[in-house]
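User: Round two. Same drill as before: sequence, then structure, for each protein.

Assistant: Same drill it is. First protein:
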Amino acid sequence: MSIAIFFDQRNPERWVQLLSEALPETAIEVYPEIKDPGKVTFALCWKPEKDVLSQFPNLRVVQSIGAGVDHIFNSQQLPDAVKVCRIVDPQLTQDLFEYVIAGIMGYIRGFPKYSTDQVNNRWKPKRYKTIAQTSVTVLGLGVIGSFIAQELAKIGFKVRGWSRSRKTVEGVKTYDLSELLDAINESDVLINVLPLTPETENILDKSLMSHLADHGYVINVGRGQHLIENDLIDLIEGNKLSGALLDVFRTEPLPEDHPFWSNSKITITPHVASITTLENAVDIAIRNWKNLQNEKPLEYEVNAVLRY
């Protein structure tokens, strides 16, 4: 049995080094240099090319090296017996919260506006909201979303949270699948941390975002496919929304001619809200490899139907 690595736009060398040091008796190979596809039982993946895993008849586990698994489900047709796992990294969760709080504070204190004013030599003070005056809705109450919602509530924000099934999160008013508009209505800030599934794709549309408070703000750290981009632009240009902070996009890198680049009310970051710690990700992959060998339950296994 062997481990195969399938990375797009990522250098696998450090993974090979760390895995080889920890698992000296295990063959570690990088696609397409696979000697015997029949021996591969464990795949490490990041944005694998379409249907590439169909070449490996004895594959049993596909391990994403990030928190997301949509790049696997959207590109591969996996047999039911193949398990998919993801990375859950406490530091990644903390990093994502810090990104979100930076975005919210910039919004309520008007930093995007003042950045534009500075370019135009314009001195124009504006009243700001306080934390206690600001309502926030978090879409997605998994491990990461629940942490973000709870930490925001501790600081003093008025926080709502929405997920497929109602969750209990300290300090947060939660809503279930049927109550999406109630969760959004008149909220100042909308934070999307949902997984990408057929049900959540395109969820951030004009109909939904129009229910935010006037001059509301959108932060998307989920996936680019959650957001209908032209709807966001229309709402900003129509002054319904004051702006957005976006870390994920339908096409990455964002094309040079994309209208987001020239919109001063949209802040763009290049998918850096949180970056998985290499050592932590490798440790999880090693533990799952050993769990597979010993027929033990896998860590952070994903429900193939729900895709999270």
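Second protein:
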Amino acid sequence: MEIIPLVIPFPAEFGRAGKGTNSYLVKGSEKCIMIDTGLDGEGNRAYINDALKRASGGRLDAILLTHGHIDHYGLASYLHQKTGAVIMINDKDSCYLDAYEKSIDEWFVRIYEPAVEGGFSKKELDDAKMMMRIVARIMNAPKEYTTFKELRLDLDGWTVDSIDLPGHTMGSVGYVVGDAVFCGDAALDGGVNVLDLKEEFVTLQKLKIFKKVYAGHGKTPLGPQDLEALEGRFISRLEDVLRASRQGATLKEIYEKVYFESTSNPYIPYRLVHPLNQLISYLRYLESEGYVAKSGNRWMSFSEKI
């Protein structure tokens, strides 16, 4: 078995120059699978085609998605049409492929009310939502794909098994091959963007049993020390939130203290909504654990340490 890491760049409109999605070709003696595809674009298509030609003569048998975010499935439709590779995703995340714009709308429903109540303007939220929908609209979502609850594939004698890794999304999975796991965004060096922090802490414990953890962005593979550092980063950020709300603070006041910015460029919407979504997840976790309480539109912490 051979693992071929690739980095698929983000388009300029994502406002993250120099960054991209980690994608992996995993090759057996004959078969070849791809784990996550990165975003679509002419340059990315040419890059993938060249990588496939060198790795397998252009053969691609399956595309396994770790979760349903567009930066992980963007090229899947193109590659399916070109190679016939079957696209596979956990059934809990298939909603993203069915209608990504709708999933953006549902995401904003989750954050919109607490954000407005917490001091963010409706206009800046609506502008960010509009730009995210425009970007989603220009990406081709796969029309044909297979869902699973549990997955096992044969790769020329190697077994590829799925493992549930909820937290970043509720349908996030990893793919286990030997002593390695491809985890998508379930663990990122320095990354702290999750939907459910309680689930994420459980996921990090699962990942510690593997010698190599192939991540969806940035440094890869990760080792046990990297996962320990990521746990520490989550704790540190939670304590930042506790300190910011010690005397009572609105959501926007906490946001400004923790993320050191009060405005965002609406043309790069992720700079607003990702930290905002994360902050709401942190506060909900801290509330469930008894560290903070909400009165009116203000949050109050009872401690500065976890």
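The radius of gyration is 20 Å.

User: Perfect.
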